[in-house]
Design a protein that fits this description.
Blueprint lengths: L5 H11 L3 E10 L5 E9 L5 E8 L13 H20 L13 E7 L2 E7 L16 H16 L21 H6 L3 H15 L5 E3 L8 E3 L6 E3 L6 E3 L2 H11 L2 H26 L5 H26 L8 H13 L1
Antiparallel strand pairs: 1-2, 2-3, 3-5, 4-5, 6-9, 7-8
Helix pairs in contact: 3-7, 5-8, 6-8, 7-8, 8-9
């Protein structure tokens, strides 16, 4: 078994009334070496296993792409503080349509902290997919629509004021490295347009395929990894998600119909759960901003990793359209 200290075991066991920790396995290492995600098997208690996010941040870590800096380290620490705040104060408000793991316990100490969560495998969300198609894309868009509708107009207390991990205020180094001068010059205006939308909600902030857990039949999803949850317009999540699962050709052929699908889900969620908000007005504003949201991420990507495979003709076309607009 992994070396687990008594405080770790006590925190986990008390969360679900277990007698002891039986075993722990690493499911995934956290980005840049800040810790790991563990599945912990238990003896006794309410559930047979839990997921534990064990975060350590003694000093700046080795970034996989060389972006090592004190600013980056501070951003990482803040992201885990936000995630803890999300699970403690917000996650319980998510319903079945935007399922997230239940928060069981948290423990902050000098050099990091633990977040103890429900094991989604134990409640039927057993599939992790590298690629998604058709109905699988739509079920994720349904999750996003439900999430955005549920938190429409909510001030992001204790979360990021501006959600998403690529937003401009926290990515000045990547902007400085950007070689596309026209995109560089337009970055601040694009950022302001996205910040000043009338309709704001909470955005997941890292809504890629890898952060969705699917039911065995693919008909339901739950989302994880809320380090960059915060305020924003919902199409930032939608653009990022579609970019994570569609290649250049698929973006051109299917991007429009998937965007239509998202807005269909959003209209239904708003009418059912937020009747005071005009769904047509939200759609009109956000649909126009889809290209801006896509270009905003493209700006980050071109500065962060100029050779990234997601830098493609579709993204360049949308960027050109947006830059001509502003």
């Amino acid at each position: 078994m992994l070396n687990l200290n008594p405080r770790f075991c006590a925190t986990v066991c008390s969360a679900v009334g277990a007698r002891s920790v039986v075993s722990a396995e690493v499911i995934q290492s956290l980005w840049s070496g800040y810790g790991e995600i563990l599945r912990v098997a238990l003896d006794g208690g309410a559930v047979p296993s839990v997921i534990v996010k064990r975060i350590r941040f003694e000093e700046p870590k080795a970034h996989p792409r060389g972006w090592n800096s004190n600013d980056g380290h501070a951003r990482k620490i803040r992201s885990y503080e936000v995630e803890m705040a999300w699970y403690q104060g917000w996650s319980g408000r998510c319903g079945p349509g935007c399922r997230v793991p239940k928060f069981l316990a948290g423990d902050r100490h000098e050099n990091g902290f633990l977040i103890v969560l429900e094991d989604l495998d134990m409640v039927g969300y057993t599939k992790r997919l590298q690629r998604v198609y058709g109905a699988e894309v739509e079920v994720c868009l349904s999750w996003l629509a439900c999430f955005h509708a549920r938190f429409m107009g909510e001030p992001p207390e204790r979360l990021w004021e501006v959600g998403t991990y690529w937003h401009l205020d926290t990515r000045k180094e990547e902007l400085e490295a950007l070689g596309d001068q026209r995109l560089k010059d337009g970055a601040l205006k694009i950022d302001r347009i996205l910040k000043n939308t009338r309709y704001q909600t909470l955005v997941h902030g890292d809504a890629k395929v890898a952060n969705f857990c699917f039911s065995e039949d693919g008909g339901k999803v739950a989302a994880v990894d809320f380090q960059y949850v915060g305020g924003g317009c919902g199409v930032k999540d939608v653009a990022y998600f579609l970019g994570s699962c569609l290649d250049d050709e698929s973006c051109e052929k299917e991007g429009g119909q998937f965007l239509d699908c998202y807005f269909e889900f959003l209209r239904k969620e708003l009418k059912a759960n937020r009747p005071s908000i005009n769904p047509e007005a939200v759609e009109a504003e956000w649909r126009e901003l889809f290209r801006f949201a896509w270009t905003d991420f493209y700006r980050f990507l071109k500065g962060w990793c100029p050779g990234h495979p997601k830098i493609n003709a579709y993204s360049e076309r949308l960027a050109v359209e947006v830059l001509e607009t502003i």
